[in-house]
Amino acid sequence: MRIAVIGGGAAGLFGAIHAAQQNPQSEITLFEQSKNLLSKLLISGGGRCNVTHACFENTLLVQNYPRGSRELRGAFEQFSTTDTVKWFESRGVKLKTEADGRMFPVTDNSETIAQCLLDTAKQAKVKILTGQGVRKIKPLNPGYALEFGDGNIKNFDRVLCAAGGGPKLASYAWLSDLGLDIVPPVPSLFTFNIPDKTLHALAGISMPDAMMTVKGTHLSQRGPLLITHWGMSGPAILKLSAWGARELYELGYRFTVSVCWLPEKKEDALRADILAIKTEHNRKQVSSMPCFGFAGRLWKWIIAKAEIGEEVRWADVSKKQINLLVNLLLRMELPVTGKSTFKEEFVTAGGISLKEINLKTMESKKHPGLYFAGEVLDIDGVTGGFNFQAAWTGGYIAGMNVGGGD
Fold it and tell me: Which residues pair with 231 in a beta bridge?
């Protein structure tokens, strides 16, 4: 049996490996349009490769997928985070878990993961051809004809398409002849542009826990927050952008975000804490003693917004200023005027509708023998290794089934 795999990313290579192992007599050929394999994997996690996330309970795992959470429940029963860790470790690649749950190879080098995949593919006799972009998939009933960018046509018995996503609907035009329902793609996992130069001056400062809410919507996320030279980033922002991908697109990426710097604090308790500090440190300057774990420069920026001058002592802080400070610490409103791509984790929401796919096998419902995996599907996760886990799971299921049978 001749099987084609389109796409040399994580899902494609993992799928090709399992197709070859499932059916050693078959001829598996992987086609990658660029000159390089696993390019996204190699840059992920700052070049360390965030392989997966230490979430080993599938009912909790699916909660990290804005698109695909319901459909992935059964898929993760077939190949879970536990299976990913075992698969790599059985091939000599040990993973470690960081404090936030992200899992990396102990080498802290994405090349370790890439080499493991390439070595396993070679052992399984997967034929890999780079610089071979597929332009069309034509059903032959049975089988499929792949038309390449140079006009060349090759026939295959089965096809696994793991060609990745794209930022525009035009990215999926080459699949249009198949009559598949495509969910228009929009960006996910992006940072917020906030036009406040005084904020930009604080670039590099982070808060370990903050609550971000988009005003006028139900969108809210909590987690670490990072100030950048264009606005805000960090897990709280990236998760908010993922869950709000379509809504924020509809808003034209112009909205107001409310920042709760101290989500653990209730308003009355926070006010009481501030009054206690005022009493105990009445002779000290407010600006000279950062409170509640704030970095010095961030604290000065916040109290300036509360109209508390840099020379003002706690004894001289008015009730009005305390009310303003409490409000800013719990509900600071900042205008967002655009987005910036979080390049390492660039992900789109959208792709082939999951209604088109049998998620038990990853086979097309309309086209027997045609399978899909990875970002070409309307599945995406939040930052932290969840998108790679979806790639491993989808690649495994598609590979086992495209390689199954005669």
Answer: 193
Which parts of 67-116 are beta strand (E)? 95-97, 102-105
Helix (H, G, I), strand (E, B) or coil at 270: helix
Q: Which residue has the tokens 């001056």?
A: 201
Handedness of CA 363, 365, 367, 373 (dihedral sign): negative
The string of pLDDT tens digits covering residues 238-252 is 999 999 999 999 999
Rg of the chain (C-alpha set): 25
pLDDT per residue as tens digits for the range 168-222: 899 999 997 899 999 999 999 999 999 999 999 999 999 999 999 999 999 999 9
Give the list of residues 6+ apart from residue 393 with CB closer than 8 angstroms, or none: 72, 75, 76, 78, 79, 80, 84
Q: How far apart are CA 334 and CA 195, in angstroms?
A: 9
**Cα–Cα dist 360/71, whole Å:** 9
Residues 194, 228: Cα–Cα separation, whole Å: 9
pLDDT surpasses 90 at 166: no
Q: Which class is 2-187+345-402 in CATH?
A: alpha beta
Each domain of the chain, given as residue ranges in start order, spans 2-187+345-402, 192-341
Per-residue pLDDT tens digits for 3-36:
999 999 999 999 999 999 999 999 999 999 999 9
Written as one letter, the residue type at 123 is Q
Higher pLDDT residue, 157 or 141?
A: 157
Do residues 103 and 95 touch, judged by C-beta distance below 8 A? yes
- Give strand pairing partners of 144: 139, 156
H runs (alpha helix) in 201-313: 235-243, 245-250, 267-280, 296-305
Residue 22 amino acid letter: Q
